[in-house]
Amino acid sequence: MELQCKVQNYEWGKLGLESAVAKLLSNGNPNIKIDPEKPYAELWIGTHPNGPSLIVERDILLSEYLKDNQDAVGPDVKRKFGVTVPFLLKILSVRKALSIQAHPKKDHAEELHKNFPEMYKDANHKPELAIALTPFEALCGFRPVKQIKEFLKKVPELAQILNQDILNCFLNDESGNEKLLKEVFHSLMSCDKNVIALSLENFLSRMDKKDAETQTSLLYPLVKRLHDNYPGDVGCWAQYFMNFITLSPGQAVFLKPNLPHAYLSGDCVECMACSDNVVRAGLTPKYIDVPTLVEMLDYKSYKPDELLFNPQLENENSCIWRPPVPDFAVVKIKVESGDSYNTRVRPSPSVIIITGGSGEACDTEPISIRPGVVLFLKASRQLTITPSDGSSVEAFQAICNI
User: Fold this and answer.
1) What pLDDT, in 10s, does the model give residues 233-249?
2) How far, in Å, are 98, 117, 251 from residue 322 at the CA level?
3) Residue 165 pairs with which residues in a beta bridge?
4) What is the largest CA-CA distance in the chain?
5) Whole-model pTM above 0.90?
6) Per-residue pLDDT reduced to its tens digit, 183-217
7) Are the C-beta atoms of residues 276 and 134 closer than 8 Å to each other?
8) What's the domain range around 266?
9) What does the alpha-carbon distance between residue 309 and residue 313 come to, in Å, rounded to a whole number?
């Protein structure tokens, strides 16, 4: 069954046809006119109430269809999650940085929702998987402590605004004590906003006069870029604590609970558990819950390659990213011209977006496919994908990880 999906025009999205979201949208439905001045940030595929998908041929929301067709969910998913699609598949097109954030564990999410329901609107966790479609930039996880110390020694504008006793303890510690990193980061996050803004201005003014090599080594281009979009924001200092990574197309990161991260630019496929629970750390005009944030974060140090999340090969046509959560997994399907492929039978419902090529897909009735076409497949059903002559089909399929 073909789905019509919701687009979110958040301000940080890529504009017009620069956006992979807009390209897929216009390819999937040629009647849609793309506004070159409008941001096309996210395409949502699933039953999330803030952007539910519609079954085209029945003119009914997917969530409503499932209520009357519970077999489409399958007994395993129904037993674990109820009559729903417990994940949300997205395409993201990022023009400027999203907020630095982390997502609470399930039990912590339940506690936050109970105590602060206006701020944390549901009781679910929000693990996420991001798979790059184009070169994709992000901040993710805390850097190795040695790197953080080097930056604090070379960037006095940052070091001077921190609590000096805490800073000295951190710089002189040889044990890699995560508690000291937590205290330093807390010192930054609780710093006065005017002090933050002035320190950034002083740093940018000083670095503007330096040679390109010095600027690059001290991350000046990135600080300036973030500051242009979020002037005076504490998050502009975050890259001295967090890893800056660039994913190549096909590479992925799994954003487990409590891992600080921010998407900076590029296009990706994202899959997540259905939740809106976000605890923000910067690069945002929205509320930053400093006590909750500082207490919950994962202060383990990571090297960039440790953050990559690799798929498992299933067969010559598919590979799968299986995060350590039951809510979702993502399958990449590639079918070459001249071949035909039957997708694996899964015990869960799935949604499939075509991202490349053209041809035909058939469950019970054949559907013409091209980039931007989105399909819903019932639990325990197969989809036969047959590319057009001279074309190869690429698709991403989200399933429950049960």
Assistant:
1) 999 999 999 999 999 99
2) 25, 31, 14
3) none
4) 69
5) yes
6) 999 999 999 999 999 999 999 999 999 999 999 99
7) no
8) 2-72+88-140+246-285
9) 13
Regarding whether 263 and 136 lie in a shared domain, the answer is: yes
Q: What is the DSSP letter of 248?
A: P
Tokens describing residue 281: 């750390």
Residues 40, 135, single domain; the answer is: yes
Dump pLDDT digits (tens) for 276-292: 778 888 888 888 888 88
Q: How many domains does the chain have?
A: 3
Q: What is the CATH number of the domain that holds 254?
A: 2.60.120.10
SS3 129: strand
In the chain, the amino acid numbered 10 is Y
Residue 305 corresponds to which amino acid? Answer: D
Number of neighbours of residue 324 by Cβ within 10 angstroms: 8
* CA pair distance 280, 271, nearest whole angstrom: 20
In order, the DSSP letters of 31-75 are TPPPPTTSEE-EEEES--TTS--EETTTTEEHHHHHHH-GGGT-H
Whole-number Å distance between alpha carbons of 143 and 181: 11
Query: Dihedral of the CA atoms 118, 121, 122, 126 (nearest 10)?
Result: -130
Taking alpha carbons only, the member of 327, 334, 332, 368 closest to residue 349 is: 327
Instruction: Compute the average pLDDT of residues 211-230.
Output: 96
CA distance 213 to 192: 31
Query: What residues are annotated to the active site?
Result: 280
- Two tokens, residue 195: 């002090």
Give the amino acid at 208: D
Hey, is 149 helix, strand or coil?
A: helix
Q: What CATH number has the domain bearing residue 198?
A: 1.10.441.10
Strands (DSSP E) found in 155-248: 242-247
Q: Are residues 133 and 149 in the same domain?
A: no
Residues 349 and 368 placed together within one structural domain of the fold: yes
Does some domain include residue 205?
Answer: yes
One domain for residues 150 and 280:
no
How far is residue 179's CA from residue 185's CA, in Å, rounded to a whole number?
Answer: 10
Q: At a CB cut-off of 8 Å and minimum separation 6, what does 77 contact?
A: 86, 347, 348, 349, 379, 400, 402
- Where residue 74 falls (left for φ over 0; alpha for ψ -120 to 50; beta otherwise) is left
Does residue 79 sit within a domain?
Answer: no
Give how far Cα 223 sits from Cα of 86, 230, 239, Å. 37, 10, 8
Backbone angles phi, psi at 387, to 5 degrees: -70, 155
Q: How far is it, in rounded angstroms, from Cα 116 to Cα 189?
A: 21
